[in-house]
Specification:
It is built from nine helices and ten strands. The protein starts with a strand and ends with a helix. The strands form two sheets. A five-stranded mixed beta sheet has the order 3-2-1-4-5. The protein folds into two domains: 100 residues, Nucleotidyltransferase, domain 5, CATH 3.30.420; 142 residues, ATPase, nucleotide binding domain (Nucleotidyltransferase, domain 5), CATH 3.30.420.
């Protein structure tokens, strides 16, 4: 049996997926990224390989593709491919009916349009700003003195929305802290935060060619409040993928590895 790997070296999390000759996922790992991306990738690869009795080392993989922020740092990689291409391919593998993606990573937001074969038709990326990214949500959760999972559900309880006017993460954090200090309802502040991020996704969805539906990838795809806000602002149905959306980059990389390793 041949095995093919994809390692997504992200700024916040490092993900690894191994698939077999049929494309079935046989191992996956998600780890918090360390300062050194080489060590992060090595840890993820070692833990993924340990899940497969036929493999002793990442070197035993037939083909390995690196992707993500630190894609050039993936040990033993035969090739590296951009995360934009890998997210498109990963979503295509997970649900071929989905043709538009908003990928919210730790440091950026991307809109991606997918062709019928899983390749990229078009894409757009936000400017180099943390607003609306995974780092932004981590900062907001910290301001609320909550875990990220708890924060992501909070806005769903809100009956009203308190708008967050600041676009910068630093200023938005100050604004939120002031609102909390004034005793404003925390669920309504959270709803304002989710809504502000959803509005930033509007242009991305247009670039991705979304007509009636879209899907979210990256860790922020698990944010229930953001999903609801995006559906409200974009007037689109957000499709939930049958595979962990945080793994899409690594899954796409593994599929590229399968295609290349079988040729």
């Amino acid at each position: 049996m041949k095995y093919f790997g994809g390692c997504d070296s992200g700024s916040t999390y490092t993900k690894c997926v191994i698939i077999d000759e049929t494309g079935k996922i046989v191992a996956d790992v998600t780890l918090k990224s360390r300062i050194n991306p080489v060590l992060s990738c090595q840890d993820a690869l070692d833990q993924a390989v340990a899940q497969i009795s036929d493999l002793n080392s990442p070197k035993d993989l037939t083909y390995l593709v690196g992707t993500g922020y630190g894609r050039n740092k993936v040990p033993f990689a035969d090739e590296n491919i951009s995360e934009i291409s890998c997210h498109a391919m990963g979503v295509h593998v997970a649900d071929p009916s989905v043709k538009a993606i908003i990928d919210i990573g730790g440091q950026d937001v991307k809109g991606i349009a997918i062709d019928t074969d899983g390749t990229v038709l078009n894409f757009a990326m936000n400017d180099k700003c943390a607003a609306g990214t995974g780092r932004f949500f981590e900062t907001m959760a910290r301001a609320f003195e909550m875990e990220l999972d708890e924060f992501s559900e909070l806005s769903l309880k809100a009956k009203n929305v308190i708008p967050i006017t600041a676009q910068c993460t630093v200023f938005a954090e100050s604004e939120v802290i002031s609102l909390v200090g004034e005793g404003k309802p925390m669920d309504e502040i959270a709803a304002g935060i989710e809504l502000s991020v959803a509005k930033r996704c509007f242009v991305m969805s247009k670039k991705a060619g979304a007509v009636d539906h879209i899907t979210l990838t990256g860790g922020c795809a698990k944010n229930a409040g953001l999903k609801a806000a995006i559906e409200q602002v974009l007037k689109l149905k957000v499709i939930e993928l049958p595979i962990d959306p945080q793994l899409m980059g690594a899954l796409g990389a593994a599929e590229f590895a399968r295609q290349k390793g079988n040729n």
